[in-house]
Each structure stands twice: as structure tokens, then as C-alpha cells.
Amino acid sequence: MDAILVDVTKCIGCEKCVTACIEKNHLNLEKSYFDRETSRDGLSADRLLSIKKIEEGRYARYSCMNCLDPACVSACIVGGITKTKEGPVIYDPDKCIGCRYCMLACPFHIPRYEWNQTKPFMKKCNMCYDRIIENKLPACVEACPQKAIIFGDRIKLLKQARSLINNNRGKYLNHIWGQKEYGGTCVLFISDVDITKLGWPNKPTVPIPEHTQPLIKETPVIGLTVGGVLIGLNWLVKRKNELAAENNKAKNLTKKEKAKSNVQ
Amino acid sequence: MFNKARTLKDILWFFVFFGLVAIIFRLWFGLGATTNLSDSVPWGLWKILNMVAGVALSTCGFTIGFLVYVLKIEKFKLLVKPAILVAFLGYGSSCFALLLDIGLPYRFWHPLIMWNEHSFLFEVFWCVMLYFSVTFVEMLPNILEKYRFRRTVHFLHKIAIGVVILGITLSTLHHSSLGSLFLITPYRLFKLWYSSYLPIYFFTSAAGCGIMFIILIKILYAKLYNPVPLFGEQNNGKTSIFPLNKNVGRIHIREYGKEMPVLSSLSIIGASLLGIYLLLKIFDLFRLNLWSTLFAGTWESWLYIIELLLTAVLPIILVINERSRRSPYGLGTAAFSASFGLALNRLDVGILGYFRDAGTVYFPSLAEWSVSIGVIAAAGLVFLFAAENFSIFDEQWKVYKISKGIFKASFDSISRVWQTALQSGLHRATIIGVFAIPIAFVLMYPQYKIENEANVVPASGFNTTRSILIINSTKPGMSTIFPHLKHQNMLGKDTSCILCHHMSMPNDKSTPCSRCHRKMFHKTLIFNHEMHKVWVAQKRKITGFHPENKTCTICHKSGLPKNLNSAVGCLECHSKDMNIADTLNLPKQFLYADSYFDVMHKKCIGCHKERKAQVKKPNLDQCSNCHKNYYRENKIDKFLTLSR
What residues contact B542, with CB distance under 8 A and at least 6 apart? Predict the structure, then answer.
């Protein structure tokens, strides 16, 4: 599985990756300038990748993390978002109905919507899936002048990141963001400053779909149980009413007999 | 009584017309132009109020069905028909609003074919769709029995119990699933509302409030058309709010109509369901240990308390109290409070609980309100139509109608609909439409039209010398008059082009206005200190020898070191000049720009380093390449000067 490793110490915030992304995805450059200022993390339907300033002189890339167990994939009503075996989480605009549940589900607030279109679709980074298939680097990785973004196999990248941290003691914080968070992501970060400001959780957490999957598996069981209980209840009440009616009849009969005997 | 119904209908028609205009705008201009939804708050009023809350209030269809058909409690039978009607209309209007809410309405059928069984939304879609069909099947006999479809009606009555059981099963599933929808946002929803019990909350509160809602509907119907069964025979034709017959020492409860005890006993069932809901909520507060958050005094905590009081506490108190339970007014208050509280709860879980995480606040636009209320109003009109023309509430409705002279209501039987509609109903509706549609059109016409990329035009000269330009400013389609010459002079004549036309970004044609005209509390070399001294002296009319030397204390407070931190912020003087930044309402983190030094050094040098091999200029990345004049001519201004 492929992944991207971001070295925060190397990034100078030149935003060449952003421009490359905009060119590759044929997005509106002028609108993206405006969105850089107005949206809170610099992302919009015309800006699928942004550089966030963590503190003075420290920048980090912000885009779809391509989680290993993505919330959006489990949320999509039509199964329009899929996790590929190459790593990227890709979106199929032909299936999308525009319910925007993926936007609600994503813990990183990544999916963006083309609000200014009459036929809007969701937009997010897909790690240049079409380029990966052709054995090319993603556009942003290719554009980076500082080699701050590295593309490669996720396991190898993790090893590389670990060795970087171990060999340069004191230069990096001893943590690889994206290794365990939300079940692991395909965009990994190593840094000398805490990047939790970027929207990462403080502690490694379970994948988001873990919150829903156990319950949704039970759904048919719940449905059948409720149906069965209802049929059972219905039968019981029916039987009870029948018995009551028979009793009443019997009582009435005995009453009548008694009345008759009394008359006699 | 008749007039009340008529006024209500007029109001409903007004809202329907408003909604119609909003629907046309939404379809024509798109979702983004007509709603206030954004990437931060993707789910708005239509989904939460109309769908989640609307469906939750229509639960009476299955709860009454359960009581009557499964448990065979005969006394509730008079509520079956209204309950089914409310369920049918509730689900119908919800689905309609949802259709407008999704981005591509013409693809609403996609989930039928494209399955993702891991999604709760998928489950909700299927259950709601199936249950809507079930309510339709349940509705059919009520309509058909007016005409001669005896066989069909007979068949439908035969399969009734099966249909009801199917309906209850589906309802149980989708009402809990509506709560489970929000389980996927554990870090986004405010922690007071997020709980793993959300499905149970949603189910119990919907079941309880659904029962209260049908009581409310029944009371409203009685108030509008036929008060006798509920309010009893009235003395003097008037009803006071607390009509009590006081005897000495003891208060006797007034005798209300004969259907009132049925509603009272039903309200006990509803209140006990709400009691379970309340107990669960309190248990959950202990389980998650949220008491400190509950009494933190934030707006969320107050909202939570108010919502819980309205949904559960107030209705339960009113139902427990026998005097209020036996009176239609007390019960009506309880039912209204429960229904309102439920809607508030759904809005909290679906919209308001996300504000803290989103960092922004969402208030629905006028078009959103119009569609929401318009759809509900349309459902109300259909409801009144059905109530007047089919024996939904009253078996002897027709007899009653003739005797009271309500026969000329704005709706009548299908056969006479044109005749009567032209006479009264449609006539009035048309008049309302004539007023409502233009008002709605004027009020809701989208503020900005969507401009395509093609409409972003390059700057054009305003006068012949091109010293003033018309440029497309930050928002496409909104042009600004840009005094080019003035900017040039202000920023330093010939050396200034670079400030805007090659600032930080590659492929940059020119810099957006907001790049400079923001709240400049931060060091940027857009600020020209030398020029400011002269300008300030001119503006303040300071005279004497070298007036600019007397201006220091205007910006730098005397007694403090004269540096950037002690200086007055740009906005103090330039508040008028910066109105662009003010109207943008930028979030705080964007008010600070990188300083010019940072931008130039970190962003230019990277490119220059890379390009030097391509263009074969080995000294492209050296300092002197840009700071040429400083080193050569020993100029005072060491900063970037024109380098060719």
C-alpha cells in the first residue's frame, strides 16, 4: 500500500505542491487564491491541498489523509467512495447523489462540496490515483522543491521515518502522526513541533467506522427480533381474547341455565 | 369555527407560495446560492428539521398501530385513521424536502441499485422508503371506502395486521438508525449530545413524542372543527381556559367530552415512554460523567437543559397532574411542549451540536426557512383537505358538515372540486398567491449570481490613461475600481510592480486585494515607513522645519521603545481604506500575513534554486541577484529593488 511521508522540518511553505495539484486537477486557480484566505484550513472545491502554518517557520500539508479504515467509505449511501488496494481513497462522481454524509463523517473535515455549481459534486484529494496506476509520482510529490513529501510503500516509509527519528535524536519528536491515529492513515507526518493543531487527535484512537459497524451488523437481527416479538404478541393477545370470549360465553350459558332452573 | 379553519388555510397557502418560489430558486440557482450551507456545516435545516424531526413526529402511525392492531386495545381505534394520515403526510413531506436537499435530486433512486450496507444512511433510506409505502397501503382503505372499491378495501383490511407488523418493524429500525447516523461523528458532535445510546434516545423520544403529537393534532382538529367530543358541550357558547366548577372546599374537575378519557390514557403511555427517555438521559450523564459540562454555563449546556425540560420534564409533570391531564388545554400544552422539544433536540444533535467543532455558526437562509415551512404547510393543507373530505376523524363527518354549514369549505368532494374551488378555495388561494409570490421573489432572489470561469475578465482601463482599472476582485463577478496609478505611487513608483505582480505565488498574475487590504496588525513590508512620515505630516498639517520628524509620537506612544510592537495598528488610521477586509469577515487566523521578508526569502529562493539549472544561471539563487543595488550602489533602502 502506497503512502506519503511529510517531513514538517523540511517544508518551507512555498505552496508549489498546491499549484501542481490545482494544475493536475484542472481547478480554478483564481478562486483557489480566495479560498486560501477564507476557508479555515485553506481547502475548498478548488483547492484540494493546502499548506497550514503550525507556527513561525513550520508548515505542514493538509489534505485527504486517505485513512486505512475511512469514515467516508463506511458512510457513503451509494458506496461511491472506495478504498483501493494501492492506498488512495477514491470517489466516483457517477454514483454520488449529493447527500453530503461523507462531509459530516470525516474526522478531518476533508470532503468539500462545489457549492457554486448547480450540479455539485464532492471534491477531495485522491493521491493522484490515475498517476499512481501509471507508476508516476503524485503531482504534489513531484513538485516539492525541498523533497519534504516522499511517496512510497507505507511500510517502507514507516521504517524510513522511524530511522530518521532514531538517527537524528532531538531533531524530531518521537512520534509518527498517521501511524496509528484513526486506525492509521496513508499520509504520514514527522515533525519537530506538535502538529495536533492540524486537526489530529491527541491520542491514537480507533477507526471511526468502529463506532457504527458493530451496530449495523446487528440490524437484521434487531429487525427479525422485533418482527418475531410482534407476531408472538399478536398471537398471545388474540388467544387471550378468544379465551376470554369463550369464558364469557360459558358464563353466560351457565347464567342462562341457572336462570332457567330458577324459573322452573 | 369555520372561519378559524379558513384563516389557517389562508396562512398555509401563503407559506406554500413562499416555499414554491424558494424551490424554483433552489432548482435554478443551485444549492450553494440559495442556502447558507457550507463545508463546515454540510447538513442544514431541510435535512434535520424536515427529515429527522419531521419523521420523528410522524411516529404515531406505528405506535397507534401497535396499540390497536397488536395489543388490540379497542378504545384507541378512533385514533387509527388520523395517525395513519399524519404518518403518511409526515413521511411524504420529509421525503420531498430531502429530495430538494440532496445535491443531485434526479439521482434519488441511486441507493436502490447501488448498495452500501455499511452505511446507516443507506439503512434509513430503505426503511423510510418502505415505510412510506406501508403508510400508503394503510392509507388506501380510508380513501377508497368513500368510493366503490369494496373488494380492494376488503383485501386491504385482510392484510392489515401483516402490514402493520411490517410497518412497526421498519419504524423501529429507521428511528433508531436516524440516531445512529450521528454515531459516526464522535469527535465532531458536542459531547453532551454524543452518546453511544443515541439510537435508543431517538427511538424512545420519537415514540413518546409521536404519541403526544397525535394528541396535539386531535386537539387542534377539535378546536378547528368539532369541539364537542373533546371539549364537551359548552355553556353560553364560550370556553374559559380553566373552566372549573367550584364547590365548597373541594375542586371538582369539569366534565369534558367523551373522547377526552381516551386521550388522557394515551398520554400516560406517551409520558411513560418519555419517562424512560429521561431516565436514560440522566443515567447517561452519570455514565459519561458529564455533570460538569451540563452546568458549565455555556450556551450548549443551557440548550441541553431547556431541550430536556421541554421534551420530557414538562409533559410528564402535566400528564401526572390529573387536573391538567383531564383537560384538553393541559394536555395540549404537554403535547405541544413535547413536540417542540423533540424538534429542538433533533436540531441540536444535527446542527447546533456541530458549531463548536466547525468554528462557525449556521443560520438558515430565508429560502431554507421558506422551503421547510412551505413543505410543512403543504402537508397541513392536504391534511385539512383529507380531514374535511374523508371520514378521518369523525364517522358522521358529512352529516355534521351539512348541519353546521361547513359544506362550502374551500375543499369539497372530488366530484365538485372545480365548482367549489372556483367559488371559494382557489379564488382565495389565487389572491394570496398574487401577493405572496412577488414578495417571495423580491426577498429571496439570490444575492449573487453564479459566475463561471469565463466571466472572470482581465482588468480593463477605466480611463484612457489606464491609471484607474476595473478589476475582478476577490469574488468572481464582483468588479472593483482599482486606482492603479495611486497604488503605484503609494508603494514606491517603478520599484513597486513587484509587490503585487510577483509577490509570493508562482503563476501569479496579480495579487488578490485581500493580500494587502487585511487587518494589518502584523509586520509586512507593504507598510512604507518613510512615506508614512511624510503623509502623516501632510495630513495633520504639521509645519516647521522637517515636519516629518515630529510625527513619531502619533504612531509610537511616547515613553516606549519605538518598534513595531509599540506602534499603532494600521486599522486605527486606515479603517476606511480597509473596508474590503472588514466585509470579508475573515477568521482570526487569516488576519496575519507572513511578513514580506518571510514570503520572499522562503518562497522565492526555493524556486530560484530549482530554476537555476534549467535557465543555466548559476547565481540565480544568490543574495545579490535580488539585492543588487544595495551592494553595488550602496543605497539606503536595502530591500528588494528592481532587478533585471
Answer: B536, B550, B551
Nearest to A67 by CA among A112, A106, A95, A34: A106
Q: Helix-strand-coil percent breakdown of chain A, rounded to 5? A: 45, 15, 40
Query: What distance in Å separates residue B72's CA from the closest CA in chain A?
Result: 7
The predicted complex's ipTM stands at: 0.89
Quick: pLDDT tens for A90-109.
999 999 999 999 999 998 88
Task: Count the helices and strands in chain A (H runs, E runs).
Answer: 8, 9
Maximum distance among all alpha carbons in chain A? 117
Question: Cβ contacts of residue B525 below 8 Å, gap of 6+?
Answer: B595, B596, B597, B639
Q: Which residue is associated with the grid cell 374523508?
A: B390
Report mean pLDDT in 10-residue bins for chain B, 644 residues.
72 90 89 86 91 91 90 87 91 92 91 89 91 89 74 82 89 90 90 91 93 92 78 56 45 67 91 94 92 89 93 93 86 93 93 88 89 94 83 63 50 51 62 81 66 41 51 48 71 62 44 50 48 78 78 77 67 53 38 46 70 77 64 47 36
Give φ, ψ of A122 to 5 degrees: -85, 150
The span from the CA of B430 to the CA of B422, in Å, is 10
Residue with cell 521578508: B597
* A261 CA: distance to closest CA in chain B (Å): 36
Q: Is A50 helix (H, G, I), strand (E, B) or coil?
A: strand
Q: Does B165 touch chain A (CB under 8 A)?
A: yes
- The Cα–Cα gap between B174 and B98 comes to 15
As a whole number, the mean pLDDT across chain A is 87
Chain A residues with beta carbon closer than 8 angstroms to that of B125: 77
Q: What is the pLDDT of residues B593-626, one digit of tens each?
A: 344 455 556 556 777 777 777 777 777 777 766 6
CA distances from A102 to A85, A118, B182 (A): 20, 19, 12
Partners of residue B590 in chain A, C-beta under 8 Å? 37-38
Q: Is B408 in CB contact (< 8 Å) with chain A?
A: no
* DSSP-based helix, strand, coil % in chain B, nearest 5: 65, 5, 30
- Owner of C-alpha cell 449529493: A98
Do residues B432 and B15 make contact, with C-beta atoms less than 8 angstroms apart? no
Cell numbers linked to B71: 395489543
Distance CA B84, CA B210 (A): 12
CA angle B51, B54, B59 (to 5 degrees): 120
Size of interface A-B (CB pairs under 8 A): 220
Sheet holding B479-483, edge to edge: B460-461, B468-472, B479-483
Q: Are strands A112-113 and A122-123 parallel, antiparallel or unpaired?
A: antiparallel
Length of chain B: 644
Mean pLDDT of A160-178: 88
